Amino acid sequence: MSEYFKHETAVIEKGSQIGAGSKIWHHAHVRQGAVVGGRCIIGKNAYIGMNTVVGRGSKVQNNACLYDVSVGSHVFVGPGVVVTNDRNPRAFVWEDGKRTKTIIEDCASIGANSTIIGGIRVGRFAMVGAGSVVTRDVPAHALVYGNPAKMHGYVCRCGNPVGDDGPRICNECRRKAAL
User: Fold this and answer.
1) What is the SS3 assignment for 61?
2) Fewer CB within 10 Å, N side or C side of the chain?
3) pLDDT digits (tens, 9 = 90+) for 35-49
């Protein structure tokens, strides 16, 4: 018996690693060399590319495609998200050396149908709004959205907006911390 759940239609290639308590759903594909940490959820039809790491407790929603990305722990990757790995794609020119590594740090959230261009870093607790096209690094706690994605303030650890300056904690979390 496996330490993780694999739907019968999922493909998990030899040479990949899946952590205990993870769930790999319908038609998901985990490539050779990929690492999925413990207690992750990989949704229906998701693609976890070679050399991709998904940290503990992260959730990769349906139809997401992750190429050459390091995903931290407790990251939310929304449905239909694509993380690319080639800044100058051409079908007739492919070399492994062209691939770029993308980093999504712990506790970040990437909204549905967003595209993250290869080589980008998304900071801890950052939030990328649905449908965004991220073409440059995103600072920790930043709220970005649009095409191209632009900063629209900061968010608390819980995801609530906290404005453009000051502490990165919302009033609700501050109140709870005081109890």
Assistant:
1) coil
2) N
3) 999 999 999 999 999
CA distances, 178 to each of 169, 171, 173 (Å): 12, 11, 9
Indicate the number of domains in the chain.
Answer: 1
- CB 81, CB 117: distance < 8 Å: no
Only one residue has tokens 């330490």, namely 3
pLDDT tens for each residue of 113-142: 999 999 999 999 999 999 999 999 999 999
Helix (H) or strand (E) holding 177: helix 171-178
Whole-angstrom distance, CA of residue 141 vs CA of residue 4: 32
pTM for this model (two decimals):
0.94
CATH code for the domain of 66 = 2.160.10.10
Summarised one tens digit per residue, pLDDT across range 54-107 is 999 999 999 999 999 999 999 999 999 999 998 778 878 777 777 889 999 999
Look at the alpha carbons of 174, 145, 131, 109 in this order and tell me if their dihedral is positive or negative. negative
Cα 174 to Cα 135: distance, rounded to the nearest angstrom = 33
Residues 6+ positions from 112 with CB-CB distance below 8 Å: 61, 78, 79, 80, 81, 130, 131
- Number of neighbours of residue 15 by Cβ within 10 angstroms: 10
